[in-house]
Amino acid sequence: MAADLRESSPRIGEACLAAIWQEGKTAVWAGNVPTPALAVYAMARNAPAIMITGSHIPETYNGIKFYRPDGEFLKEDEAPVRLLAEALLGGEFGARPVGLTSPLADVAEEYVNRSINSFGSEALTGMRIGIDLHSAVGRDLLVRIFEGLGAEVHPFRRMDRFVAVDTEALDPADLERSREFIAENGLDAVVSTDGDGDRPLVIDDQGKQVNGDILGILTARYLGAKTVVTPLSTTSALEESSWFENIRRTRIGSPYVVAEMASAEAHPVVGFEANGGFLLGDDVKLNGSVLQRLPTRDSVLPAVAVLAQAKEQGMRLSQMVATLPSRFMKADRVKEVPADRAIPFLRAIETSQSFRSSFSPLIAAPESISTVDGVRMAFANGDTVHFRQSGNAPEMRIYVETDSEDKTERILSGLIAKLAETI
């Protein structure tokens, strides 16, 4: 078991430990470590795991993420657990919360060594990297990893109170802060993660965020992936790059990606999401070492891989990103949108041309509409607009992709403003 740095996480952790002990099981407290660090440690020992985290959502929320001994909980695992929980909630729970013990240091150490041993101690030599510490649970480990890879590390913004960072909807103030820090210190990049360390944040040498799906494409190429699995919400630059033998699209959510990866025939297989979380389905060789599979979202692998790749190619990170096909995907969200308002809105967007026209003429006449996950509209000019209710917070997200960064920004900001006043 481990937890992020939210104020409520220790209380939930104590209750979970008590429940585990009451059932006659042994619980090992790993302390405050990133979700992928806990996952890779547990999987290597064929042990289930529990992470107390609300991930990227606001501090007022929290959650519990479960891992089976062989990896992530899948969708078919959720119903039996939900039924058991509902049955238990109707009875008496006699166990008292127990105090958290001293954390098992091996979990953090193995996660740090995983990257350094695989990429090598000179992988980032000569690079100047800023680390936005904020309240990320793996902030100190990030510093150790990048220093261990040879980078000159410049940490900043350590926070005592938890502040959520959403890598798909980055606060403009956070981006501007990183941009200024890069300029002031002559950095090659700024690296950070969300609260529990499974979604990367990378700002390039020009002060621009490298979107998570772009990180995923570049990392997949670096690792020599034959099959790439990714949700509908990631950029079509993946297909247009022609770098991969097999590309499979899924619904949004890592359990769908993991399940599809398991059926891949061409290996190595990898997966990634729009948030940047990268899933490694097979062991891969790097610099004579073996990087072991980790089929759950990881933030460190894509951040390190793109920077190491840029260094090997003698390019700035911004230059390497520019080698991809010109497709620009961006997402944003409107908060406090409960399901009882989201469902009728999505139905109207799907079925009513008059509603779409009144909402925005830009989405009045899509060439096709997919309802596999939310409402995704494709247009004759190649643009896409995707409305989707979040699966873990009361908010609605909009994903927009066009052939121009300015156009994507303009359409997205307009749709977000209209959604906020409509819903």
Automatic annotation (TrEMBL):
InterPro entries: A-D-PHexomutase_a/b/a-I, A-D-PHexomutase_a/b/a-I/II/III, A-D-PHexomutase_a/b/a-II, A-D-PHexomutase_a/b/a-III, A-D-PHexomutase_C_sf, A-D-PHexomutase_CS, Phosphoglucosamine_mutase. It comes from the Bacteria. Residues 2-78, 109-207, 211-327 form the Alpha-D-phosphohexomutase alpha/beta/alpha domain. Its cofactor is Mg(2+). Its EC number is 5.4.2.8. Pfam families: PGM_PMM_I, PGM_PMM_II, PGM_PMM_III. One of its GO terms (molecular function) is phosphomannomutase activity. GO terms for biological process: carbohydrate metabolic process. Keywords: Isomerase, Magnesium, Metal-binding, Phosphoprotein. Belongs to the phosphohexose mutase family. This is Phosphomannomutase ManB.
